[in-house]
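Structure (tokenized):
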């Protein structure tokens, strides 16, 4: 089965990850804590952000695309409400892949637990927003 995907929803979900990240990591929200805990010192040059932002856009598109495909497959398998399937699939994929992998890598890298919680919480919100956008616009 090839999943039907609403690419407009995928594009909006991709953009939503940029919005969530921009808010989450702004200095007035969690940015100062993140920079201090992760040892990041901003250079002050906006050109230094171009590469990481480009990578984030590509990776966010892949995440949204895979999520949309997984949502379609779970919806076809379980039936029910597309939106609810999207949220449940997003939460399960986040827990089983994103959170689990972050925790494992951060434990071996000996990163502070607060940094791990901050980053997996950011990923949770990002995936939940993506799932909500995808869930609102099922494929035709």
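Design, position by position:
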């Amino acid at each position: 089965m090839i999943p039907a995907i609403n690419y407009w929803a995928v594009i909006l979900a991709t953009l939503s990850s940029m919005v969530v990240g921009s808010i989450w990591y702004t200095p007035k929200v969690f940015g100062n804590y993140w920079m201090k805990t992760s040892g990041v010192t901003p250079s002050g040059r906006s050109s230094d952000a171009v590469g990481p932002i480009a990578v984030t856009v590509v990776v966010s598109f892949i995440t949204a695309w895979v999520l949309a495909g997984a949502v379609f497959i779970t919806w076809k398998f379980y039936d029910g409400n597309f939106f609810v399937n999207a949220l449940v699939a997003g939460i399960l994929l986040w827990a089983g892949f994103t959170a689990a992998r972050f925790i494992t890598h951060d434990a071996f890298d000996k990163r502070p637990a607060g940094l791990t919680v901050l980053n997996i919480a950011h990923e949770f919100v990002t995936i939940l927003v993506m799932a909500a956008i995808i869930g609102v616009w099922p494929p035709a």
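Reviewer-requested clarification: The chain has a mean pLDDT of 95. The first helix runs from residue 7 to 24.
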